[in-house]
Amino acid sequence: MKESRKSLRRLSLAVLIAALLLPGALFAADEIKIGVLFPLTGGAASAGRELRAGAELATDIANNVMPDLSMTMAKNAGIKSLGGAKITLIFKDHEGNPTLGADLAKKLILDDKVHGLMGAYHSSVTKAVSGVAEQYGIPLINDSSTSPDLTQQGYKWFWRTTPHDVYFTKDLFEFLKGMTEGKVKGVKAVPKKDIVNIAAACDKTEWGAAVLELIEKFSADHKFKLKKSILYASKATDLSAEVRSLIAVKPDAMLFASYSSDAILMMKTLKDQKAAPKILWGQNAGFEVPEFLNTLGETTNGVLTRTIFIPKVAQTKPIAAKINAMFKAKTGNDLSGASARAFTGIQAWVHILEKAGSAKPEDIQKAANSIQIPAEELVVPWAGIKFATSGDDIGQNVLGSGLIAQYQKGKDGKMDMEIVYPFNLATANMIYPFPKF
Amino acid sequence: MDILVGSVMSGLLIGMVLALVALGLTIIFGVMDIVNFAHGEFLMIGMYTGLLTAQATGMDPLFCLPVAAAVGFVLGVLCYGGFVKYLLRGPMIAQLLGTFGLMLVLRNLALLFFGSEDRALHHGLLVGKSFEIGMDIIISATKLAVAVMAVLSFCGVWLLMNRTKFGKALTATALNRQGARYMGIPTERMNALAWGIGGSTVTAAGALIVNFWSVTPYVGLIFTMIAFTVVALGGFGSVPGAFFAGLVVGFIMEIPGFWDFFTITFDIEWMSDVPMISFKYTWIYVAYFVIMLISPRGLFGWKQ
Q1: Angle at B123 between CA A272 and CA B38, to 5 degrees
Q2: Does the pLDDT at position A432 exceed 50?
Q3: Is A297 an 8 Å CB contact of chain B?
Q4: Does residue B256 sit at the A interface (CB-CB below 8 Å)?
Q5: Any idea what DSSP says for residue B189?
Q6: Helices (H), chain B
Q7: A241 contacts in B (CB within 8 Å)?
Q8: Per-residue buried b or exposed e for B7-28, using 16+ beta carbons within 10 Å of the residue's own CB
Q9: Average pLDDT score over residue span A114-118
């Protein structure tokens, strides 16, 4: 009896050792694991929920055949070139904390043995995670961080599908210039002196600081006067001193870069202190998550935000309409800039894996560097996805573009978002000046 | 000019609330010489109590103060009876680390129950309302109401401490514990009551603050620091000191506003380049450091 127990123990030990020695690649055929890092709790949790839902919807489509969707990834169940391997997403919550993000990325690589990574929304976290990915040689596709720095690190394992803040801030100043030239739908040419004074407040993070720097640069280039620029403490609980400081310089245009809860607090404080700018613009993030509109309601009337997707895009893109309908059925919300970008990030992953035909990091790297996804495939109104392989923006999608949208109260009394830039895509007359609170 | 008056008003209003925040800390320290590191967490619990009561009952958040005060009282007494009482038997370091541990426990319990998301009040009688008092000076209605209620609560506690038998017993315990016990004062119960009152004042302050600040389980830290500064300035154990120092710290928080005033009035180029506002809380820490350096006993302090 004692003998047999001993041999059983030996046998199980041998099995355990054998299991450990088996190469990971042997299992790769039926499952591709992608570690996804998003802020699922904390100040940007509402964005995190959006991102997660967008990524999950794309994975659903990739893993199942959906014949009525005109997308390559809807045609096969799983990755065809990998024998129908299904994609599994492993979500991790980094709470907007770069150190935690880096730790989680390590855990995903070493413990969960993921084939690739995606995330992480906050540019600061993405920066930390990209360092880890580079160190371990694991591909990281960034779907939604916009600090220009990220693609300027010369990393070989980092690709970004979304346009970054240089694109967006350039758009903003093109838009302001367009206003003085009468190019904006429904607004007569505004004398430059009416909108020349600018005040900007950005969140004190990697991303906010980058945006503020760009606003400083572009306002100088386009001869606007930046009268006040503030970096406020991120996850602020009180912004009244900041808002007083902004109002004190009597700005014509107020520009913001804030994550979810800060954006709402900023708007409430602006209303509280009766700020009266002619233009109020948000750099995406907190200004375009559904919670912003749901919480503030009609207070948002006239607020501009840069984004890459609003439901109005669906009018000109049938595929966007279909995906939007699926997303709405799943979550109750329309696709937003965040969810559409997470969707597109997973879509890029699927195309790259399909092209690579292998789950080896080197093959994925090669495929990513040579991929070209056409515009018809995408939900977002870009010219496609193609990553730069040289220059000082390595890994950046060169075919992306942004929109500027405005919250407007429709005739039916419901709030909606309308495109005001690019001028040729405008879907409504712009509300100018910004209505008083 | 408007920014100067605006900053003064804002500093004054927030200062009154900060005074109430610090009151509990100074009472607890005065009575039993123990520094409560979990003070900010009590405030955080008060904020959640105010917020959740308002949301659950549809009651105006301003009137959730009694509920929060009651919760704070019970919490304070429980903390004392179940935990602090035993700490007092240990050395000083055990008391310090003990309340520090209490802070971690409360914070993580809040994380467990409420999650780490920001929550804020978006409805209520005065939420989002403000009025102009001329010269472009805008006063937020919630802040004004909150300041008034803070002052009323403060006066209530002051009367309780100075005009009642119970308050005298509490003061006696603070001055000489052994002597008080010989006089027949139940010092053990006084300690528990000090924690109860300390807890209820700070949770009441929390229920007021949640009218205009959002709450997360981490919000306590900044308030603990503010409360420490207020108490250090006013003097450990001094109730009027806490009020006066609260106002001063309120003004310290408005330093960036005063800076803006000088920048704009005198049109000084280099001043506008200093990112003063990014460091708005720094001045509180600087003030704490300076007070500790020159007058560790504070302005009205009688305990060392």
Answers
A1: 90
A2: yes
A3: no
A4: yes
A5: H
A6: 2-32, 39-57, 65-79, 85-87, 92-114, 141-163, 165-175, 177-182, 187-209, 220-234, 239-253, 255-266, 269-273, 282-294
A7: 7, 10, 253-254, 256-257, 277, 280
A8: bbbbbebbbbbbbbbbbbbbbb
A9: 95
Indicate if the pLDDT at residue A2 is higher than 50.
yes
ipTM surpassing 0.85, yes or no?
A: no
Tens-place pLDDT, residues B123-134? 777 777 777 777
The confidence score (pLDDT) of residue A23 equals 44
Per-residue tokens: B196: 């109860």
Beta-carbon separation of B116 and A264 below 8 A: no
pLDDT of B43 higher than 90: yes
At A52-71, the pLDDT tens digits run: 999 999 999 999 999 888 89
Does B275 sit behind a cis peptide bond, omega within 30 degrees of 0 on the bond before it? no
| A309 Cβ contact list (under 8 Å, min separation 6) | A320, A335, A336, A337, A340, A341, A379, A380, A381, A403
Confirm or reject contact between A204 and chain B (CB < 8 A).
Answer: yes
- Interchain contact B118–A (C-beta under 8 A): yes
Residues of chain A with pLDDT > 90: what percent?
A: 53
DSSP B253-273: HTHHHHHHHHHHHHT-HHHHH
Per-residue model confidence (pLDDT) at position A18: 52
Question: Does any CB of chain B come closer than 8 Å to the CB of residue A240?
Answer: yes
Cβ proximity of A54 and A379 under 8 Å: no
**Exposure b/e, A365-389, CB count within 10 A at least 16 = b:** bebbbebebeeebbbbbbebbbbbe
Cβ A75 vs Cβ A65: under 8 Å: yes
Mean pLDDT of the residues in chain B: 86
Q: What is the pTM of this model?
A: 0.79
Q: What is the dihedral of CA A65, A66, A72, A75, to 10 degrees?
A: 40
Residue of B nearest to A260 (CA): B118
Provide the pLDDT for residue B301.
66
Mean pLDDT of A136-160: 93
Comparing alpha-carbon positions, the chain A residue that sits nearest to B115 is A41
Q: What is the mean pLDDT of residues B61-65?
A: 83
> Across the strands, what pairs with A140?
A117, A158
Q: What is the pLDDT of residue A29?
A: 53
Rounded to whole angstroms, how far apart are CA atoms B287 and B281? 10
